[in-house]
Amino acid sequence: MPRNYDIAELRRLDVAHHLPAQQDYALIEQMGGSRIITSADGCTIVDGEGNRILDGMAGLWCVNIGYGRDELAEVAAEQMRELPFYNTFFKTVTPPAVMLAAKIASLTGNRLPHVFFNTSGSEANDTIFRMVRHYWKTRGEPERTVFISRHNAYHGSTVAGVSLGGMKGMHAQGDLPIPGIEHVRQPYWYNEGRDMDPEAFGLLCAKAIEDKILEVGADKVAAFIGEPIQGAGGVIIPPASYWPEVERICRKYGILLVCDEVINGFGRTGNWWGHETVGVKPDMIAMAKGLSSGYLPISAVAVSREIVDVLKTGGDFVHGFTYSGHPVCAAVALRNIEIIEREGLVERTRDDTGPYFAKALAALAEHPLVGEVRSAGLIGAVEITSDKATGARFGGAEGTAGPMVRDACIANGLMVRGIRDTIVMCPPLIISHAQIDEMIAIIRRSLDQCSEDLRAG
Ligand code: PXG
Q1: Distance of CA 378 from the midpoint of ligand 1 (Å)
Q2: Domain check: are 270 and 288 in the same one?
Q3: Among 11, 33, 122, 290, which is disulfide-ready with 161 (CB 3.0 to 4.6 Å)?
Q4: In contact, 182 and 200? CB cutoff 8 Å
Q5: Domain limit, last residue, from 321, 342, 363
Q6: Are 405 and 421 members of one domain?
Q7: Does 1 map to a domain?
Q8: Which atom of ligand 1 has the smallest separation from the CA of 299?
């Protein structure tokens, strides 16, 4: 039963004491506190005012199996009673951590058989940053330290995560990136390549990586890191030519290929991994979010045998977190994966709901304010434009339309993200056809409602 919260008092306390993530604190104060989400079930969240909102974002790109799974609460309680915590530092480990590592390895077809645990996506990327540099040093190539990443990539909020990421606004706070990280262009065809054939544009963007390698010196580059499909950057789905060419370039220069699967993983794109969808075989992957469907914080890095064989010659790798392999989080993640398998959510996304979502989006592309729609599995985007022919943005600058249409969607009962002028969606993988129809109908209605205000500037 939902609890009877004093919402007005909670909002007062929120303003007085709570600092939210990636927010303008003054704005929250002016609003009288954040919207308080009190409960959820299936694909629907409920706020303090009793509004039921269809969650088109699966929490924060993470609740793949949907809300309200008693089974996970029971598994967590059972594990807490048996063993709430033990660490993996002192030649010790717990059963759920070992079983989850083996399960993740099997989900990579045992191509990446070794798994390191952390609690967040950011930490997973911090682990990758240190492990890759340590690997090259141990291999006798200590000069190989440089990471290549993309503008507008999102790899987290820690120092290494922000630095690997390509968000300019985040770099500006904290004097980042740290040295040794180079950013190249993103394969964002709608924004940056519309005058070109998409596949030629994909190759051009991949060539930017090769140009950077040659500029830095091939013997100094340690790894290329990228999300197969950029999530927080605006659901940027590269042309099919891009990733295979990126892989070819990495192999040509002996550079490690790292995929950040934090959003893409666990069925999101219609395969277990985004790298399968884009057709590459990385040496390392980061995962989080869908690993536990957000029920508890846990992340992991899966690593190739070749890399670990080298690490084995280097003594202690002095890296790890108190909560690495946390038994309760690992037990919940294991059961989450079991649910994804039992309910066939990956196959359903690939064969049923993903194609249905793509078709529903395609119909929305007819709307006068929509410049492009794109999706892969159950991740999708709608580009808002003032001119379908040129792709021009409202107000002559990027970033006005997204937040306005997003707010209208929320008022109409749908949670989405507005990233610049792009509405992005990432619903739970249990979403029904009817709920997909509802999502698209709400976006259409919200675009109609905003049309006049947008045209008025
Ligand atoms: N990599 C990717 C690809 C992510 O999307 C992280 C790493 C970091 O994970 P943690 O667990 O440390 O947050 C993410 C997180 C947004 C938004 O604006 C996206 C994320 C986080 C916060 C906001 O859409 N993704």
Answers
A1: 17
A2: yes
A3: 122
A4: no
A5: 342
A6: yes
A7: no
A8: 11
Given a contact cutoff of 8 angstroms between Cβ atoms, the answer to whether 83 and 325 are in contact is: no
- Ligand 1 center–CA 452 separation, angstroms: 33
**How many angstroms does the Cα of residue 156 sit away from the middle of ligand 1?**
5
Asked if residue 247 and residue 99 are part of one domain, the reply reads yes
pLDDT at 184: 98
Q: 286: CA distance to ligand 1 center in Å?
A: 12
- Domain boundaries, position 100: 71-342
Where helices occur in 153-296 by DSSP H, the ranges are 159-164, 168-171, 189-192, 198-216, 242-252, 274-278
The confidence score (pLDDT) of residue 456 equals 86
Nearest to 384 by CA among 425, 418, 427, 426: 418
Domain count of the fold of the chain = 2
pLDDT digits (tens, 9 = 90+) for 268-304: 999 999 999 999 999 999 999 999 999 999 999 999 9
User: Which residue is closest in CA terms to ligand 1's atom 9?
Assistant: 121
Q: Are residues 244 and 126 in the same domain?
A: yes
CATH number at residue 181: 3.40.640.10
Between CA 272 and CA 337 the distance in angstroms is 10
Residues 333-386 have pLDDT tens digits of 999 999 999 999 999 999 999 999 999 999 999 999 999 999 999 999 999 999
Looking at the fold, whether 61 and 80 belong to one and the same domain comes out as: no
